[in-house]
Specification:
The complex is a heterodimer. By secondary structure, chain A is α/β, with parallel strands linked by helices. Chain A has five helices and five strands, in the order E-H-E-H-E-H-E-H-E-H. Chain B is 36% helix and 32% strand. Chain B contains four helices and seven strands; from the N terminus they run αβββααββββα. The chains are: A alpha/beta, B alpha+beta.
Chain lengths: 122, 160
């Protein structure tokens, strides 16, 4: 399974990759904002997208809205990893096309459960 | 319902220790809590996240460069140079502020938070222009001392 990880923080991208590696995954693409994420998605096969919300240039919500309007991004599972934990935030993300939501800080077990949940509906 | 001022420290300590246990894989030991504006923690790198809503203020995370290096190694498994440390400190500050915000929402205290800002240096201090509460909590991480600072002013319009 190949992941696209979209986050402006190189630290958070590294944390997510380390966690996924511990979970047994091996293939990752990285992007620093939503616009880069769309470019990466157009460059090759991606099986699951993990994106932050608050990013410069194009935030996670606009990224997912744009993603859902492309043929290759229409049905790819999207997991949002963010500190925005209010009910209204979750509702907005789901409305934009996010499939599931992880609130930081998170454990490897939580990430695994959410990946399994979104992957099973792909 | 609003949270009692003394309980703010419990919420802040809970949010901070949770971030360290979950994401940094280090136990933090809470130490002295200092209220007011007299305390100025010694640090070399400071992450800040502002918030606004039913309360306004900021969360600041103070630590030395040596502590930031050890924290980063524990969190990422790699050593970053000084150019990479601000991003790591900013992300940890972001998670502390986010966890604090999430816990405060249970008390109907709802905020939006800013993206983190990181300042590197030692000859400065944060001077709030508001008249709200200010508290600094010291933590021990192995041999390092870290500080989390909260400056908070309830919004009178939101409380009305």
């Amino acid at each position: 399974m190949r992941f696209l990880i979209v986050d402006d923080s190189s630290t958070m991208r590294r944390i997510i990759i380390n966690t996924l590696t511990k979970l047994g995954y091996e293939s990752f693409l990285e992007a620093g904002n939503g616009r880069e994420g769309l470019d990466r998605l157009g460059a090759g096969q991606v099986d699951l997208v993990i994106t932050d919300w608050n990013m410069p240039e194009m935030n996670g919500i606009d990224f997912v809205r744009n993603l859902r309007s492309t043929p290759q991004g229409k049905s790819v599972p999207v997991l949002m990893v963010t500190t925005n934990a209010a009910n209204a935030d979750v509702a907005e993300a789901l409305k934009a096309g996010v499939n599931n939501y992880v609130v930081k800080p998170f454990t490897a077990e939580t990430l695994k459960e959410k990946i399994n949940a979104v992957a099973s509906h792909a | 319902m609003t949270i009692a001022t003394a309980s703010l420290v419990d919420v802040l300590v809970g949010a901070t220790t949770d971030v360290f246990e979950t994401m940094v894989f280090r136990q933090l030991v809470p130490g002295v809590t200092a209220w007011g504006h007299a305390t100025r923690p010694k640090s070399q790198i400071v992450g800040t996240v502002g918030f606004a809503g039913s309360s306004t203020g900021l969360v600041a995370f103070h630590l030395s460069i040596a502590a930031a290096r050890d924290m980063t190694v524990a969190m990422l498994g790699i050593e970053l140079d000084e150019d990479g440390l601000p991003d790591a400190v900013g992300e940890v500050t972001n998670m502390i502020a986010g966890a604090f915000r999430t816990r405060m929402a249970a008390f109907q205290d709802a905020w939006a938070i800013s993206v983190p800002t990181v300042t590197v240096g030692s000859d400065f201090y944060i001077k709030p222009i508001s008249t709200g509460d200010r508290v600094i909590v010291a933590f021990a991480m192995d041999t390092h001392q870290l500080f989390v600072e909260l400056i908070i002013t309830p919004n009178a319009d939101a409380a009305a």
